[in-house]
Amino acid sequence: MSTSSQRFAFSFLRDGFKFRLGRLYDTFWYSQSNLKWVLVFGYPAVLFWVRWRAEHQYKYRVYVADSNVTPDTTKKVPIWGKEYGSWSNGKPVYQQATATVQDLKAAVYGGKDKVPESVKAGCHGRMFEDTDNLALAVRSFCKRDPMIVFWDEVTAQKEVAGVVGGQ
User: Cβ distance 151 to 69 under 8 Å?
Assistant: First the structure.
């Protein structure tokens, strides 16, 4: 008796799938090495990093209204002596969900000691306190528009000058 092939009504699906899987394996194995490892490791790593950042950090856009409180973010290139990286309004700043307004100011100005005392933050005409949770303040006051404005509070300047002057 001769052996007959095992051909069934829908065996073409299995055969086609096995064929395509084999072609995909061969294409990957014999492709350029730089391309294949970027596709296997690089691309998923970038996707994971973007997804992790989106789930664990919040993005805030920071605008500075007064030029005298603009943060100094310029850096000099040691070889050419050229400055780059000046402040631009709308710069995104990423913060954790538990960050306070003071943490945002420290991130923008490069440290808590560099933040001017008269700088206030807020959005849509509402002022934030330094101890406010940033995420809750933005949710309450900004209504899904995380555009935070820094400005120089004149009354705070007078209070600071009065304390320094000894009055």
Answer: yes
2 domain-assigned: no
How confident is the model at residue 106, as a pLDDT?
94
> Do both 48 and 106 map to the same domain?
no
Structural domains counted in the chain: 2
pLDDT digit string (tens) for 75-130? Answer: 766 766 666 778 889 989 999 989 999 999 999 998 999 999 899 999 988 999 99
d(CA 103, CA 112): 8
What are the CA-CA distances from residue 63 to residues 125, 132, 139 (Å)?
14, 19, 18
Residues 69 and 140 in one domain: yes
Q: Which residues does 134 contact at the CB level (< 8 Å), separation at least 6?
A: 58, 60, 95, 99, 100, 101, 103, 104, 128
